[in-house]
Amino acid sequence: MSKEVDGTKIKTKKTWKDYKQNFKKRLLNVKQHTIKRWKENKKKIIIRYAVFLSIFLITYFLDQFTKFHFYPGEAAYEAYENGNIVQVYQGAFLGIRLVPHHGVTIIPFKTNAVIIIVQIISVISILTFTILIFYIDSFLWVSIIAMLVSGTAGNMTDRFLWNGYVKDILFWTYFEKVFKRDLGTFNVADVLIIVSIIISVVYLVISIFVEYFKEEKQKIDNPNNQNDINNNDQIVSTNNQHNTVS
Predict the structure, then answer these.
(1) Is the whole-model pTM more than 0.85?
(2) pLDDT score, position 222
(3) What is the pLDDT of residues 74-132, one digit of tens each?
(4) Which end of the chain is least crowded, N or C, by CB within 10 Å?
(5) What whole-number distance in Å separates Cα of residue 71 and Cα of residue 82?
(6) More confident residue, 71 or 58
(7) Is residue 128 a part of any domain in this protein?
(8) 3-state DSSP call for residue 89?
(9) How many CB atoms lie within 10 A of CB 185?
(10) 35 is in which domain, residue-wise?
(11) Strand order in 86-90's β-sheet?
(12) In this structure, how many other beta carbons lie within 10 angstroms of the beta carbon of residue 215?
């Protein structure tokens, strides 16, 4: 027994010209889809961008206002370099202290090259997410992206204005007392980024479970359809086995 090879089904190796043509076709398809979407959903797209810009501007202003309000020019930086942290307010749960942070928290390297790379990535991310709003129908995702873009833009603005430094002002007074150690300092922009990520993850997890339970409910409500699917799978499997043997 041997498996026959159909010579007509041998794939030819694609050339650079083929890849170039495929790329042009995809660009053309995207262009046509974009034009069609704009014509069919012009008002909805404008409303979504209005919501996006409103959330972005409000949260961005809140972030920048808190930073400029509490930071007394260069004084906080000079104090921090001398080993002193300027503490403005200490509440029962949340406090305000001025801690200029150079670079990005999750990146251990604090060189100027890293700052430049982070800024470039931030600009690209902001532009990408802003364009993405055009293709999104959910106002929830529009809100999530607006908060994420606002937080990214807020910290990016700090790095541009303060030689790579980000103005951190908030800290957890309650948790630092409980754990008896410094838990770091953050700002409104950080909160926006973290909250947007958490909401995204929670929403995706819930969506997966909802879809799963919907499918299970359909199987219970329509057992005959499931049996038909199983029978079809068995027929296909049997045919494949016969073809292999022949």
Answers:
(1) no
(2) 74
(3) 655 565 655 567 787 888 899 988 888 887 777 777 788 888 999 999 999 999 999 99
(4) N
(5) 16
(6) 58
(7) yes
(8) strand
(9) 21
(10) 24-221
(11) 86-90, 94-102, 165-172
(12) 10
Answer yes or no: is 163 within a domain. yes
Residue identified by tokens 């010579």 is: 7
**How many whole angstroms separate alpha carbon 184 and alpha carbon 105?**
10
Residue 154's closest CA among 54, 53, 63?
63
The neighbour count for residue 123, using CB atoms within 10 Å, is 13
Residue 18 lies in a domain: no
The residue type at 1: M
CA-to-CA dists, residue 208 to 21, 80, 112, 200, 203, angstroms = 37, 47, 42, 12, 9
Residue environment code for 21-57, b if the CB has 16+ CB neighbours within 10 A, otherwise e: eeeeeeeeeeeeeeeeeeeeeeeebeebeeebeebbe
Structural domains counted in the chain: 1
Cα 222 to its chain centre, rounded Å, is 38
Paired tokens of 110: 């604090």
In a domain, 166, yes or no: yes
Residue 148 in tokens? 């994420």
